[in-house]
Amino acid sequence: MGQLFSSLWATLFPSAHTYRLVLVGLDNAGKTTILYRLHLGQAVDTHPTVGCNVETWTHRNLTFEAWDLGGQANLRPSWATYYSGTDAALVVVDCTDRARIGIVKAEVAALLAHDHLASAAVLILANKQDCPGAMGPAELTAALGLDAVRRQAWHVQGCCGLSGEGLVEGLEWVAQQVAHLAPAPVPGAA
Q1: Which residues, 6 or more positions from 14, have their beta carbon under 8 angstroms from its beta carbon?
Q2: What is the pTM of this model?
Q3: Candidates 42, 72, 129, 177; catalytic one
Q4: What is the pLDDT of residues 48-83, one digit of tens each?
Q5: Which residues lie below 8 Å from residue 84, measured CB to CB, with a gap of 6+?
Q6: I need a labelling partner for 108 at 20 to 30 A (CA). Which of 8, 23, 117, 164 fits?
């Protein structure tokens, strides 16, 4: 029903601006699963991303172009090449992978410090909330040291990429953050 409403809304009120998103996170965090859940509205079988996946979809009257970047250690240094022109960064965290939370914290700190993302909204998707022992959003916020971040807007959203739970709420937050970024309509333009 939600997908139908979004499609109808987009048809009646098309967006003139496409918002650029990047999805980053360590390997096996669920980035590609989340990308296709947002794009297609369903879970699909995925394989580790080598390079990137790009998809475009409309949510309400906003068009998003999302770049899903591979999360293997040898690919992470290339993330920054995709940051220019980014409106929002979605950081997907496997909340069951407590052993690598220090690596996630370092990657998030580097992302937050990058000049090309200074005005970008940052959504931390606390994925795999359906799994036993997963860190909740409050625990993840503390583990990543996000309470000290003052430079830009950020939000932590609990979610499950497989079921889609929490993803619409996260995308709604992103939509609120980026909606003011669209260029103003030109008076008299058709």
Answers
A1: 61
A2: 0.84
A3: 72
A4: 676 678 889 888 889 999 998 888 888 898 999 999
A5: 116
A6: 164
